[in-house]
Amino acid sequence: MTVEPNEGKDIKGQFREYITNNFVLPAGGLTDEASLLEEGVLDSTGVLNVVMFIEETFGIEVKDEELVPDNLDSIDKLVAFVEKKTGRAA
Questions:
Q1: Interatomic CA distance for residues 33 and 7, integer angstroms
Q2: How many folded domains does the chain comprise?
Q3: What is the DSSP letter of 41?
Q4: How far apart are the first and last CA of the chain?
Q5: Are 87 and 7 in contact (CB under 8 A)?
Q6: With left for phi above 0 and alpha for psi between -120 and 50, is residue 8 left, alpha or beta?
Q7: Is 35 within a domain?
Q8: Domain assignment of residue 50, yes or no
Q9: Domain assignment of residue 17, given as a range
Q10: What is the pLDDT along the chain (90 residues), one digit of tens a residue?
Q11: 1 lies in a domain?
Q12: In a domain, 65, yes or no
């Protein structure tokens, strides 16, 4: 089921809720610019789960060449990636 980003929460809010509910966060919490890989929040399986979340929630396809840290390594980078792919601002 695809949920429009404007329903209820903004893009950043949707990512923050998904990551908080599905992954173990560092003891001190997680800032929007913190590296999800370096903080140990995401591993390779986690990245695939986030990609599935992006595709299902925002109705966009994430191509293999887009599976890079510049697109997926922080909440801020995830938001920017979705905004670029959908042409929407948070």
A1: 24
A2: 1
A3: S
A4: 21
A5: no
A6: left
A7: yes
A8: yes
A9: 11-86
A10: 344 444 557 999 999 999 999 999 998 889 999 999 999 999 999 999 999 999 999 999 999 999 999 999 999 999 999 999 998 764
A11: no
A12: yes
